[in-house]
Structures are given as structure tokens and as C-alpha cells.
Design goal:
Blueprint (H helix, E strand, L loop, with lengths): L2 E7 L3 H9 L1 H4 L6 E2 L8 E6 L4 E11 L3 E6 L2 E10 L2 E9 L6 H24 L9
């Protein structure tokens, strides 16, 4: 089973892309810290200061301004950035859930909706919602 979530964001593809791959930007809406700029083949350490948590992701493929693919744990994630007339649609797809992981799948879906909402607020209005969690 896979989770797919998407949201319209009224910015350019390059601005949406940079929000994910640039360590100075990602803290505005998602993780509190990213160890370095995201690129194919890199292992990135992400931190959630609010939860005293840290995780590593492996960047498996990137197409600038269009696609970011990575793995975390047993799951793979795709972030698609598709240009539209008034901005972009950002779609996240987290893959490889099995029937025994329904509760985790639902929690992850909530997380993706929240992350995309924070991304929209950050990019369109420069509002750092995730920082309010501190």
C-alpha cells in the first residue's frame, strides 16, 4: 500500500525544490536541521529538535525542480513537483506499507498533510508553522 498526498502551492518549481534540498530552508517548514544539501547518493541526517529525534535518509534520485526520491527505514518516498498555471502541485508518495501497518500508514498520512500545509504557509506567506511546535 502507498500513501499519496498533494497540495497546490503558489510558487515556482525552483522555490519549492529548494525548500526541500537546501538545509537553510527545510527548517522553515519540516525538520529542524538537515546535515547538508540533498543530492543523489547522499545520506542526509535530519533532526526533529522538538522530539529529540534524528533519522538518516538515503537520497536515491533527484531531478532538479521536479523530483526527489529517498528511503527512510523500510519505506521509499517520492516528492514530485509539477508546474501548473499558478504555481506547483507538490505530491508526496510514501511506498511499501503492508496490510499489518494500517495504523502507521494513517499516522504517516497525517504527517504528510501537515508537512505540505506547513510548506504552503512557509513558501507563500513566510510563516514558520513547524517552529511553533517548540
Amino acid at each position: 500500500m502507498d500513501i499519496q498526498t498533494q497540495m497546490q502551492i503558489n510558487v515556482t518549481a525552483s522555490k519549492a525544490y529548494e525548500a526541500f534540498v537546501n538545509p537553510n530552508e527545510i527548517s522553515g517548514f519540516w525538520f529542524s536541521h538537515s546535515s547538508e544539501r540533498w543530492a543523489t547518493g547522499k545520506t542526509i541526517t535530519l533532526e526533529y529538535a522538538e522530539y529529540h529525534a534524528e533519522l538518516d535518509i538515503k537520497i536515491t534520485h533527484i531531478e532538479e525542480n521536479r523530483l526527489i526520491e529517498f528511503t527512510w527505514g523500510d519505506h521509499s518516498v517520492e516528492i514530485h513537483i509539477e508546474e501548473k498555471d499558478n504555481g506547483v502541485v507538490v505530491t508526496t508518495v510514501e511506498k511499501d506499507f503492508d496490510e499489518s501497518e494500517v495504523e502507521q500508514l494513517l499516522g504517516q498520512k497525517e504527517g504528510w498533510v501537515y508537512m505540505l500545509s506547513c510548506l504552503k504557509a512557509y513558501l507563500e506567506y513566510n510563516v514558520k508553522i513547524r517552529a511553533a511546535l517548540l
